[in-house]
């Protein structure tokens, strides 16, 4: 793992005084001296070079940018050869990437246990379509048992076929690598070799380096020499030294200057694609504008590790307009002459409107943004900059004397064509015009909230309980609930909103709250269902667990009194229905656990509960009780060890048997009054 990933990394510095709504010093744009000379310890890792506030200083600033780039490339003996390799040329046009949970309900139907690629693409099409997708798979559920990050890919039946289907639809597919996964079972090979094997097994195009700005030499070599060879994308602030072999990176936790600055890594290498993201934002206009002015891309992450952070209509409309232009004019953006902050009229600048120019052959594109909350209507560019056919490529409208509308917190693209128009221009303008006719949606910045709803509890078929079951009396209660604050949140909403990078003590801290609940008359079993009891159920009922033969092992059968594990929520429900019972909710479990006769098995395992929730994108379930197992070595692992009765664990619900764990069992509950026919 890179030496930049040590505890001294300034991106990870912990402070109790940090204001989460204010960018850290490391996130702020870097001031580039006018002569372009900057200490490499700063310049090689800067996020954005700030633009001067005074337009009179911009020409000297642009000269300084050129000087800095030339000297940095010479000092590092930069070649850029990797960007010309056949397997990686696509990265320069990979403008929009989705970060998607493998079992996102848009991509995976939990009822049929099938992947639904076309449904996913249709439901996310209003973002303008994706060029790539990162399939995240293990975090935040890894650590529930000893399975490692590679197991969580390999245990998914048919995953290679799903990846091939995404690729057939035009998407490049990334898997993610978690370097912090050191506390689960070790794979047969070291991580670089194992990664090289799995990318070949799955046939993916790239690897996202979770928590890493760069891979080390062994990892880089293994992935570049894999079959197929891979591209690498680092998470934030890839240093100049690694732009040589990391073709993409995140522009994460980046604060821009008022006059839009220049992203250091992309200025250093125009073919290096960056994806802007602020994962907890409800407002993405700042990221979109930075990407538009720099000719770079966006990461769409609307469900962050199981919590909904969806994009508003205004920002989705902005992204669609950007992507149409970026894809059509990719050669201009990558190979053309880029002149940051130029040609805008004084009245436009005074109104908070900025422009940059990209020029290649007969085509000149100005990327234009409006920093204010009021539409700007009027001429944008200096008269002497206007030449040839002028069109607004973001709305599909012709321009007269450069007059157009730059939407509030939005973007505009102005294209000048000298000579004959390219063949693709008519289709681009038609698509832009059709999109611009969307009634009112493009100005709606309302957050599209989702609420996670509890899946309806099916009452038990029988009201007869075992004599030793624990009776939970009906009534209203206010129950304490403890949990560890993780990025996956709890019942509703994201744990952070419009915040910069969450750090301890606000990340992974112990949280306590109270929840008012009303319970019915119910009895909860004193102990978990055992292996022997579940085997009897299988032999008697004819039930066959889908996508799993893991339960039938000699080791399991030899321990008939041990808790039945390696069973999914569906399996537990099937047993409960056969027994005339159901699973207890997390609150019924918690109240019953206060009884002195409540028994925990040996080994101790988490318990499934009848507390499944869905917000239409992510399904999750609450687990209770803790387990003897605990994965050590990283705070990113799911909680382990024995837990007090009030502790609840939100577990994202995987499918296809991946949700089955050796450390999750279940017990039964009975409704004591019949509530159904």
Structure description:
An eight-stranded parallel beta barrel has the order 2-5-6-7-8-9-11-12. The protein is of the alpha/beta class and 677 residues long. Strand 3 and strand 4 form a beta hairpin. Helix 6 packs parallel to helix 7 and helix 11 runs antiparallel to helix 14. The N terminus is likely disordered. The protein contains 18 helices and 35 strands. Helices cover 23% and strands 21% of the residues. Among the domains are: 121 residues, Golgi alpha-mannosidase II (Immunoglobulin-like); 219 residues, Alpha-Beta Complex (paralog of FGE (formylglycine-generating enzyme)), CATH 3.90.1580. Pfam families: FGE-sulfatase. InterPro entries: CTDL_fold, Sulfatase_Mod_Factor_Kinase, SUMF_dom, SUMF_sf. This is Sulfatase-modifying factor enzyme-like domain-containing protein.
């Amino acid at each position: 793992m890179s030496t930049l990933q040590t505890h001294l990394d300034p991106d990870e510095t912990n402070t109790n005084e940090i204001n989460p709504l204010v960018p850290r010093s490391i996130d702020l744009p870097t001031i580039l001296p006018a002569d372009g000379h900057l200490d490499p310890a700063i310049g090689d890792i800067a996020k954005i070079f700030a633009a001067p506030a005074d337009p009179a200083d911009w020409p000297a600033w642009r000269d300084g940018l050129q000087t800095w780039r030339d000297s940095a490339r010479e000092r590092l003996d930069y070649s850029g050869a990797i960007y010309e390799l056949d397997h990686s040329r696509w990265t320069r046009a990979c403008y929009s990437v989705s970060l998607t949970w493998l079992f996102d309900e848009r991509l995976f139907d939990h009822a049929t246990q099938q992947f639904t690629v076309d449904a996913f693409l249709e439901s996310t099409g209003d973002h303008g379509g994706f060029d790539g997708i990162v399939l995240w798979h293990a975090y935040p559920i890894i650590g529930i048992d000893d399975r490692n990050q590679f197991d969580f890919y390999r245990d998914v039946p048919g995953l290679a076929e799903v990846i091939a289907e995404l690729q057939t639809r035009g998407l490049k597919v990334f898997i993610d690598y978690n370097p912090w996964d050191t506390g689960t079972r070790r794979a047969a090979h070291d991580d670089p070799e194992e990664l090289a094997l799995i990318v070949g097994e799955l046939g993916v195009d790239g690897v996202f380096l979770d928590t890493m700005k760069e891979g080390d030499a062994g990892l880089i070599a293994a992935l570049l020499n894999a079959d197929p060879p891979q591209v690498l994308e680092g998470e934030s602030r890839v240093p100049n030294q690694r732009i040589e072999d990391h073709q993409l990176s995140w522009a994460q936790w980046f604060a821009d200057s008022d006059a839009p600055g220049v992203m250091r890594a992309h200025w250093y290498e125009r073919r290096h694609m960056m994806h802007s993201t602020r994962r907890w934002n409800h407002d993405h206009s700042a990221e979109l504008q930075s990407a538009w002015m720099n000719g770079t891309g966006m990461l769409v992450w609307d469900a962050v590790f199981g919590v909904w952070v969806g994009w508003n209509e205004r920002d989705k409309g902005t992204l669609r307009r950007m992507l149409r232009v970026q894809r059509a004019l990719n050669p201009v953006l990558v190979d053309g002459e880029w002149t940051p902050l130029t040609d805008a009229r004084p009245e436009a600048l005074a109104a908070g409107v900025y422009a940059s120019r990209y020029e290649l052959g007969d085509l000149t594109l100005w990327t234009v943004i409006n920093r204010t909350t009021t539409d700007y209507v009027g001429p944008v560019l200096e008269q002497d900059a206007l030449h040839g056919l002028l069109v607004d490529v973001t709305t599909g409208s012709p321009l007269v004397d450069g007059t157009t509308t730059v939407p509030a917190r939005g973007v505009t693209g102005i294209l000048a064509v000298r000579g004959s128009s390219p063949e693709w221009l008519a289709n681009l303008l038609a698509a832009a015009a059709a999109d611009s006719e969307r009634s009112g949606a493009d100005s709606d910045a309302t957050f599209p909230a989702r609420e996670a709803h509890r899946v309806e509890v099916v009452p038990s078929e029988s009201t007869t309980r075992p004599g030793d079951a624990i009776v939970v009396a009906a009534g209203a209660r206010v129950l304490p609930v403890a949990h560890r604050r993780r990025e996956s949140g709890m019942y509703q909403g994201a744990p952070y909103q419009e915040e910069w990078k969450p750090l301890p003590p606000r990340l992974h801290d112990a949280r306590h709250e109270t929840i008012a609940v009303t319970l019915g008359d119910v009895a909860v079993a004193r102990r978990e269902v055992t292996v022997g009891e579940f085997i009897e159920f299988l032999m008697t009922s004819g039930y066959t667990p889908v996508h799993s033969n893991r339960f039938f092992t000699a080791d399991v059968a030899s321990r008939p009194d041990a808790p039945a594990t390696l069973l999914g929520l569906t399996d537990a429900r099937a047993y409960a229905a056969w027994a005339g019972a159901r699973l207890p909710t997390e609150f019924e479990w918690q109240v019953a656990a206060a009884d002195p006769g409540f028994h925990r098995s040996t080994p101790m395992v988490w318990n499934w509960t009848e507390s499944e929730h869905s917000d239409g994108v992510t399904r999750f379930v609450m687990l209770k009780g803790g387990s003897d197992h605990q994965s050590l070595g990283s705070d990113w692992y799911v909680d382990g060890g024995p837990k007090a009765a009030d502790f609840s664990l939100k577990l994202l619900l995987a499918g296809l048997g991946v949700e089955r764990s050796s450390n999750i069992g279940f017990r039964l509950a009975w409704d004591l009054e019949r509530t159904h026919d």
